[in-house]
Batch of 3 targets.
Target 1
Amino acid sequence: YNPITDEYYNDFEINSNNDKGNDNIINDNDNYSTIQNSSSNISNNSIQNNNYVNDNSNGIIDQLRNILISRGSKCIFNFQRMLSIYDRNHSGQISPDDFTTIFQTYNLDFSSSDIQNIFQQFDTNQTGAINYDLLMNNLIGQMNERRRLSVQKVFDNFNKNEQGEVLLSEIKQKYNSGRHPEVVRGRKRREEEFGEFLDKLEIFREYNDNLKMSYSTTMNFNEFLRFYSEISMSIKDDNLFDNILYNCWNVNSGFEDRNINYYNNNSNNNNDRNYGINIRARTGKQIMNRRNMPY
């Protein structure tokens, strides 16, 4: 838990070893297994096209990625926004002084030589300015195939125009924060999760609009994939990523080995529904909330 950002950024793994009371019930008093390495879905082997560069900075990019992840799921978006703000002429580049200022503003504890090393690595055209979108590509990395297919499945459920684009208004309307695991487990309110999602989406839109020098009202698949690649950074477990993705978009995962049943009160607004949830993991154990009442 990060008290500064008020976010929980560790993921949890459910298995039979967590049932310390041996009562076939996993509750908040049981010892969940914390997943420490949140960046496991980033593979150096996947960096192989022109949108990426080989990391010759002695692991500084990995270090920067891990610091941003450790500060919460929204931190990478805020860092992205900062880069975009300093691109005053919408060129996709920022100066060495501005780049250093961003590190200082963000309290990123890197030496001047480290910052210069990163800058030179992404000054690909030797113009004395950093290509910050290339930097973001390397920080985010690429999703594994399973996650990419999950994102594709969700995107296919949207109504799209002839160009294969989805209205941002539809994305906002269909996002169901009430089924996010953090909300279900009582760690966040529905309104809080929905607000964070909208903030991330708006930052992402502003970033793309700044590069394109236009105002977007739609999102294509590549943009949707990039958006969820940023969210994916702070989620280690593939099962948890799928759980968040499919539940929040009301999409059937198609996984036969998961028995997840939702009981909702009558409501016409997805984000105002009060969901009771009865989740049985592969072990058949029921997840309970703090009051030992089933979700």
Target 2
Amino acid sequence: LYSVPGIVESWSICSEDVDWISRKKNLPYDEYKKWYFGLKDSLNPVNFKPKQWADVMEKAGMKYMIFTTKHHDGFCLWPTKTTTHSVASSSWKNGKGDVVGELRKACEKYGLKFGVYLSPWDRNAKCYGQGDEYNKFFIEQLTELLTNYGEVHEVWFDGANGEGPNGKKQEYDWTSILKTIHKLQPNAVTAIMGDDVRWVGNEGGLGRTTEWSATVLSPGSYPDKSHNKRLKINEMSKDLGSRELVEKAYRMYWYPSEVDVSIRPGWFYHAEQDSQVRSLNNLIDIYYQSVGRNS
């Protein structure tokens, strides 16, 4: 579930456009960016029905929901104290709305576990790229999410950063970030940039033919990169656990994979794609090639 102020999300405000989300060619980038960040002022999701979402998920047999509380555009769907770029600045419920809070209550009502996605990359924060200052800012946001909404079962980070070669560089303090999670939500699973669950390496929802839970791949949040570099592997490598690779490794990790896939051509809703939703047969095939392959 992706949270965005509108029908597109933050990739479209990258200085390097992506072909599946692009702005009008005659609109200068700075004007587009100003318009995009201004969307918060008109945000008013009057048809937002979190109980309906949770009801559908529970009936479909799903066990948990991971909600994108902030994506790369930096817009926060809870009334954070760290920035004005949030629902608190919108007209929705006179600035008193809290999407995260309402979803958390809906999950509790329908017996669903609740997880949060919080984007490390932030295209709105002025302190992004300023080392310790941004890490403090990010940990404050994380702390709010982990202390104000009851038990959080999973915390999901990604390593995305589309700044380009001349963009801002931010060194994330993963040690302090993970320490914060372990302190505030000791039972939470840390995913992707965490060290409990890894990304499978594609967004097609497919596991490798043999998807090992015990792997030689070091988590991306670990400061020592020499192990992966020596083995010439990363999260997208085809082989992460064969006998031949294990023979070359100095250490292994219990680091099972998680898959992600969209039921549409892209990650975001467009009415013209309503006829392109994945078929039941296709989804079952993906299930067999993900869960059926230990992912």
Target 3
Amino acid sequence: LEKIVIAEQVYQIERNVFDGCTSLDNVHVPSNITKMEQSMFEQCTSLTRVKFDAKIITLPKQMFMDCSALECVDFTGADTIKRMRESCFQNCIHLRTMVLPPNLKFIEDSSFKACIGLEHISIHENVRSIGNFGFFGCTNLRSLILHDGIKTIGNSTFANCTSLVKVVIPASVGDVNPLCFHNCIKLEEFLFNKGSKVNEIRTGTFENCMKLETINLWCRVNNIHKDAFKNCFSLQEFNGSYVSYFHDYAFTNCTNLREVKLDIDKIFQITTNMFFGCICPMLRFTFGDEMEALL
């Protein structure tokens, strides 16, 4: 099967209908389609382009999973889609860029996992959440734009995005979950926008981000969890004026850390293993106008 034409009288397509059609290369899903089920085009390994005008609310799970030749999906006419279910584009290794459906609100777990060709993604202002492993292993993702409106970023969402250089978290985000940027080995700059609601750096969030040199937490982050900055070998300066709690191993193996700036009136907990493996000869703490040098 190389080509399909979906007739005007068709309004529903059942699950797995075109699953494994390895010669299918181009598809138009017309506006008369109002219901679709999972894995519709899964493993269509020759599929390169899709024009999507279906009037559905939810993109089913595993919709284009393992479509290894897929390069472009046009969602211009898909203005009714609110939710992208799990693994929708997982393993679409030739997908280079993606313009999301204009009214999409929820990107569920593993939606773009292992899309190793994806270089750019813009998460528009209508998106409210990105699920666990949403972009995990997108090793060529260099440009990430998160617009104000998103509230939650899931576990390991951008972990193993080994080409990602800069991330700006919008003020609307209230929660960045564990391991979110784990193993982003080229990440050099990370910023919270003014007015950020994030109050915790969770376990392993920046573990193995070996290019990070400075962390400025001018927002109201007050809790740094275990392994939050583990193996950030280039980290030299940490500014956390609102931080109250530091957990064990928060800065494990940050061997170049030189200065930590805190507010002495807000500190409640600093643990003995907080700087485990930090072999730097001098680490300077600044508490407002008071200073202490630790040898």
